[in-house]
Design a protein that fits this description.
The protein has helices spanning 2-13, 16-37, 51-83, 86-90, 96-122, 134-162, 166-179, 194-197, 201-213, 222-254. By secondary structure, it is an all-alpha fold. The chain has one domain.
């Protein structure tokens, strides 16, 4: 896993501007939401001109970490198919789930670093926290990463088996982010859509993180949110390992590991 991550890091060193541009893109989007927050003064955001801004900072930063966790493995499989290196990786005596995590490791680490930098840059714009439940925040983050890394491995399995599917995973993550309250509270969604939000693990992750970091958030049960996240992780992570192993065997039987 570390070997694959080191390879991705060495490739990234050749494109250092990408790291800076990623921070610039994320920060510029949050500047827009800081301006928009001045127009939002109703509902749960009433009384604090920065409440909506803080709400979106947490949502966008977490979404920026979840996205590579869920999509990088599928994109890496496709790249290895095109470059002809997938057969070599398949021959290595390592668990398939470890290889899947290796495909995502550097991208997730980079997203975490960018998220920390972007969050620090938003402090002068008004992102301050009056209380922090660090234990809950870290546990929610770890469980969220485990869940979406598992989703990423399942996406990689789809690409391994059928040589397509990467865009589907990306689109699915975008829809999940929208339904889970990344940019606005779930209770603002149409009534018929809200039940779908409760099927998304990101909903519970954002609830736990916002309640652990933002004082203006309504009090929620950390235990309930974390228990749901743990349930998703317990189901999805082993399932992703099974899916990845099965996809490798399927592609090897068909002789399509290098087909693209």
């Amino acid at each position: 896993m570390l070997a694959v991550a080191r390879k991705d890091f060495r490739v990234a060193l050749s494109y250092r501007l990408g790291f800076v541009l990623g921070i610039g893109s994320g920060f510029s989007g949050l500047v827009v939401f800081r301006i928009l927050s001045k127009l939002v003064n109703g509902g749960q955001f009433a009384g604090d001109p920065t409440s909506f801004f803080k709400f979106t900072v947490v949502g966008i930063v977490i979404a920026s970490v979840v996205q590579p966790a869920a999509t990088t493995a599928a994109a890496s499989v496709r790249t290895d198919q095109v470059q002809g290196t997938l057969e070599f990786l398949a021959a290595q005596p390592i668990p398939r789930v470890t290889l899947g995590l290796g495909w995502s490791a550097y991208a997730v680490f980079q997203a975490l670093v960018q998220g920390v930098v972007i969050t620090a840059l938003t402090i002068p714009l008004g992102f301050r926290v009056s209380h922090v439940n660090l234990g809950v925040a870290l546990l929610a983050l770890v469980l969220t990463l485990a869940i979406f890394l598992a989703v990423g491995n399942i996406g990689a399995a789809v690409v391994l088996a059928w040589q397509q599917g990467g865009p589907l995973v990306t689109s699915l993550v975008a829809v999940v982010g929208l339904l889970s309250g990344t940019l606005f509270p779930v209770n603002e969604l149409p009534g018929w859509v809200r039940p779908l939000a409760h099927l998304s693990p990101l909903t519970y992750s954002l609830n736990a993180l916002r309640s652990a970091l933002l004082s203006h958030q309504p009090t929620t049960s950390f235990g309930e949110d974390l228990a749901v996240l743990l349930g998703f992780a317990i189901v999805l992570f082993p399932l992703s390992g099974i899916a990845l192993r099965s996809a490798f065997r399927y592609a090897q039987r068909r002789g399509t590991l290098s087909t693209f």
